[in-house]
């Protein structure tokens, strides 16, 4: 089950890299967050960690439902451009993505040998991190860059779950709080009517 | 109780920022003064002092950083009182600035006082996010663009720090469990960490994140662009407070990394900082406006602080840190007056001041400009002497004495380029160009006097003794 979910996590991120429509990108982000939440729930129940179960539920509520909903509302309110063509051509991206995956598996080999729980997942979280950075880089529009930042945060969360069997509850709640704060700031940044002094 | 006292002024400022009264700006400035009181109280307590269990612990290092930051905060709020006299700013933007300044303070208090890697990161992220909106209080397209840039680059930097923290936590979790997040326990058990490579990897990634935030190589220009686009108090906050929170994190992480493998840490950080100073010295040489000049000089000084710290000279690093934290915001705040007649008018910028206020202003700015390039009796002169001395002492214990002497000579050449540029700019400000009248307001002057007094206090024997006892 964990293998299936982690595969789905990576797949949703790869598909997001090729998406050319904003709402579709939000959907892939939502699915990415949903798989992350389900992963936390599965691993949490496997190792009997109540904190991780709570984290999983909050992830699904905030990241899979709340944030995509808020971002969709923002896009309608501020009339975002919905056609988001990546700057990197598809034929190059198709070569770049597997190259990143192979490179990160090779890069993380020494680390993988030191982590005994869910070792290969660490490599996947690091490759997700690079793919999220790629998502931020390949778009010139702000909205996909925000999604890139949010998927970057998902990748770090995945690393936290897999490499350490969950971070302390206090830290995870703090990260959620900061994420909400980021959404508030993003909302304020879109307001342009205040340009008049 | 102490935590409540520390947070109360910031919460008060947050609430007052919602008032629409004209006079509320004085209340906001007052609340910034009040922040100093609990910090002075904290100074008098026996260290380490547990503020919130093992999560927030005040020791000598963080109390010093917090005191320096609170003085900078007071100076910035004083300058904010007359911000509308120099730039176009709406009352709404002014109030929002204070609202985010309050959130920024809360983030900083948690970040600086944390004994926990996770809480350090949460505080830093909160402070980073709150500064994003401060940049946007300048309602220009350039500031709007730079606010987004900051949001994205800042988020990447902070994400790298979290990535590093997770790896460091994973490396120590087998021996410490969930306590592997605590700085003091990690330091005590550094030699027992079962996977030192994993810890070093985490440290390197977190350090790169922190260096990006401080504008180190290869991200040399983003900070300068942001500080140019935003209002000058934002630049003062960045250089005097936010970078302090970042560097205190570096101090904490590197203390542990030194125990794990000192040679790896030293080579990595030393090469990184030399490369940064090399690039920045030439960028300073080409700088054509005050904000970029001071911003790039800030990067140079942060690199020197980091270099002195890893070279085994914590005293020099802390002295340099304190001097930089007072000098750089003072210079940034004075740009409000210096740029009264145009952004790129360096020639004659120190002329045209009338009356006692004007005379004190240009005299103080001259002193600050010469102090930042380490002319004696600037604290930076002494910190650099101690710092370079420590680098040679460290090399004596290894087989690389010749390489270190070469590195120090190379650094001195780079610093002399910066010295030459600053002296040339000072001469141009004082002796070239036309004399155009400029107004200095009492609150700005008071802020500069506060920074000048703080610099003098930094050189008092008691302060130096305190700094020597920090590590």
Quick rundown:
The complex is a heterodimer of chains A (197) and B (471). Chain A is mainly α and 197 residues long. Chain A is 79% helix and 0% strand.
Biggest pleated sheet of chain A: none
Share in helix of chain A: over 70%
Order of helices and strands of chain B: HHHEEHHHHHHHHHHHHHHHHH
How far apart are the first and last residues' alpha carbons of chain B, in Å? Answer: 27 Å
Residue share in β-strands of chain B = under 5%
Q: What is the average per-residue confidence, as pLDDT of chain A, rounded to a whole number? A: 84
Residue share in helix of chain B:
over 70%
Which shape of chain A, going by the Cα principal axes?
A: globular
Strand order of the largest sheet of chain B: 1-2
Number of helices of chain A: 8
Q: What is the residue-averaged pLDDT of chain B? A: 89
Report the C-alpha radius of gyration of chain A, rounded.
Answer: 17 Å
The number of distinct helices of chain B, counting runs of at least 4 residues, comes to 20
Give the percentage of residues in beta strands of chain A: under 5%
Rg of chain B computed from alpha carbons, rounded to a whole number of angstroms: 21 Å
Query: Tell me about the biggest sheet of chain B?
Result: 2 strands, antiparallel
Low-confidence stretches of chain A: 193-197
Provide tags for this entry.
heterodimer, A: 197 residues, mainly alpha, B: 471 residues, two-stranded antiparallel ribbon, 77% helix
């Amino acid at each position: 089950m964990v293998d299936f979910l982690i595969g789905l996590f990576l797949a949703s991120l790869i598909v997001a890299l090729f998406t050319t429509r904003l709402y579709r990108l939000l959907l892939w982000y939502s699915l990415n967050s949903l798989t992350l939440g389900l992963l936390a729930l599965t691993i949490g129940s496997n190792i009997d960690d109540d904190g991780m179960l709570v984290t999983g539920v909050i992830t699904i509520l905030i990241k899979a439902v709340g944030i995509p909903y808020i971002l969709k509302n923002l896009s309608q309110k501020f009339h975002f451009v919905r056609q988001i063509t990546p700057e990197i051509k598809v034929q190059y991206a198709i070569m770049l993505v597997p190259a990143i995956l192979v490179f990160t598996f090779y890069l993380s080999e020494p680390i993988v040998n030191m982590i005994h729980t869910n070792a290969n997942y660490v490599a996947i979280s690091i490759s997700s991190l690079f793919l999220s950075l790629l998502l931020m880089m390949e778009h010139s529009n702000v909205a996909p860059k925000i999604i890139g930042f949010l998927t970057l945060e998902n990748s770090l969360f995945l690393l936290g779950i897999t490499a350490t069997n969950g971070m302390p509850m206090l830290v995870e709640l703090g990260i959620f709080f900061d994420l909400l704060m980021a959404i508030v700031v993003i909302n304020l940044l879109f307001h342009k009517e205040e340009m008049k002094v | 109780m102490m935590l409540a006292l520390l947070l109360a002024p910031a919460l008060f400022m947050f609430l007052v920022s919602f008032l629409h009264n004209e006079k509320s700006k004085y209340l906001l400035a007052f609340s910034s003064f009040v922040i100093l009181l609990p910090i002075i109280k904290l100074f008098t307590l026996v260290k380490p002092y547990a503020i919130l269990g093992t999560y927030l612990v005040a020791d000598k290092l963080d109390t010093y950083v917090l005191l320096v930051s609170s003085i900078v905060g007071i100076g910035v709020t004083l300058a904010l009182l007359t911000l509308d006299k120099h730039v176009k700013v709406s009352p709404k933007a002014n109030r929002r600035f204070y609202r985010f300044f309050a959130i920024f303070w809360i983030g900083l208090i948690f970040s600086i006082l944390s004994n926990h890697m996770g809480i350090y990161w949460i505080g830093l992220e909160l402070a980073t996010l709150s500064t994003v909106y401060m940049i946007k209080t300048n309602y220009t397209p350039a500031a709007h663009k730079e606010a987004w840039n900051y949001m994205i680059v800042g988020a990447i930097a902070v994400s790298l720090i979290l990535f590093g923290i997770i790896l460091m936590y994973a490396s120590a979790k087998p021996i410490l469990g969930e306590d592997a997040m605590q700085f003091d326990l990690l330091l005590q058990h550094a030699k027992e960490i079962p996977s030192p490579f994993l810890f070093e990897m985490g440290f390197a990634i977190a350090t790169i994140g922190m260096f990006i935030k401080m504008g180190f190589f290869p991200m040399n220009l983003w900070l300068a662009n942001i500080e140019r686009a935003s209002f000058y108090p934002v630049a003062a906050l960045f250089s005097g407070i936010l970078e302090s929170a970042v560097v205190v994190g570096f101090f904490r992480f590197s203390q542990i990394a030194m125990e794990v493998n000192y040679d790896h840490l030293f080579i990595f950080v030393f090469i990184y900082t030399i490369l940064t100073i090399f690039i920045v010295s030439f960028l300073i040489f080409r700088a054509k406006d005050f904000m970029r000049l001071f911003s790039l000089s800030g990067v140079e000084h942060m690199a020197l602080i980091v270099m002195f710290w890893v070279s085994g000279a914590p005293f020099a690093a802390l002295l340099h840190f304190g001097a930089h934290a007072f000098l750089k915001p003072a210079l940034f705040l004075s740009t409000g007056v210096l740029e009264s007649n145009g952004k790129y008018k360096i020639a004659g910028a120190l002329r045209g001041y009338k009356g006692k206020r004007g005379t004190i202003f240009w005299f103080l700015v001259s002193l600050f400009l010469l102090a930042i390039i380490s002319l004696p009796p600037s604290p930076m002169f002494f910190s650099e002497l101690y710092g370079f001395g420590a680098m040679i002492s460290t090399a004596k214990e290894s087989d690389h004495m010749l390489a270190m002497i070469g590195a120090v000579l190379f650094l001195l050449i780079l610093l002399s380029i910066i010295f030459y540029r600053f002296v040339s700019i000072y001469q141009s400000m004082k002796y070239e160009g036309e004399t155009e009248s400029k107004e200095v307001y009492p609150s700005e002057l008071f802020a500069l006097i506060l920074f000048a007094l703080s610099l003098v206090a930094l050189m008092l024997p008691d302060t130096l003794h305190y700094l020597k006892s920090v590590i």
